[in-house]
């Protein structure tokens, strides 16, 4: 259906609905199962509940699992908890990869998850419970148990026979992990090397003993960085004693990157946890309001600074006209540096280049931007307001503020990172407010000292 134009897609959809309406389940199955699972999920999302109930009669639980994976959480919850027969739902989850089932169940209420787990097969349920026991956002919480492990004394022919039996249930077979008698990871073998080797060759002679692996307690971002760095399709997850626990595949890493990017975006905009469009207005307000209230109190500091220099403003009221310009310029420049440093920390480029070099570069950038802005203001303000001293005050204030703002925007996330916290906590509004305060202090200090010349 993905290759059809819109008119043909709509006709195809109507034909499928017609088959469901007429209860021609066998014919529907043949047509429907030819679609890609994503297209199946899109079709499913357009159906009314009465037609979905007919679809469940036509589609087996293992086939429904592929559709289930392509739905968002709210749709999954409605499907598995409310709409489906409990046994059908449990059978469907039995056919999900353990990490996907664990991800879904971990978001349900405890009693809902327990009810489904009790109905699932014991082996599948135990795998899911094991994954759910790991702390959120760790390698263990996103790994899957469906992988192929082999031993070093097997021959190529024996492994190929093993693959015929185990591959259908494995999430990926591009890498085969070699373990010893106590299930410790000792090597890895690619599918390419296996297929091109002699059938009688022993795995010990083919495998690589230098395995790229990561411990189950590591942060999920570390897994993503490792897979990106070494261009892997999957990475083995081990315990502290090198027992092979599971694997994380590249599709899981794509989900991690999306989650982390969304989280960082929330931090930058002071709306952490409130970027999900599925949240209600009340939930979004509840999550956003603490940041806004905190920043409002910082705003009171800004108001206090302006009040402190009331006499200066009373003498030269025109100074007030340039307060927004100064605050916006410093805030924007600081946020730019914040974005550069947070992104550099996420990609690991700052560690390679060095912290001092990064700070020097941002400070030099701030000096150049500040100098350019100051020159523009020194040329324009006299033409508009006819006051050279005012132009110098504003120009020098902007130069100093922008130079300092870049350093603050760079150094705050570095400090937070050293404290083992997410550097994105140094959100854009937070950095902006700090630079507003410092910018006003600089501005009014310079203006007060040169007041006699105005």
UniProtKB/TrEMBL annotation:
Gene Ontology CC annotations of this record: plasma membrane
Cell location: Cell membrane; Membrane
UniProt cross-references to CDD domains, sorted A to Z: CBS_pair_Mg_transporter (cd04606)
Domain of life: Bacteria
Topological relation to the membrane, as annotated: Multi-pass membrane protein
Molecular function in Gene Ontology: magnesium ion transmembrane transporter activity; metal ion binding
Family, similarity comment: Belongs to the SLC41A transporter family.
Role: Acts as a magnesium transporter.
UniProt-recorded name of the protein: Magnesium transporter MgtE
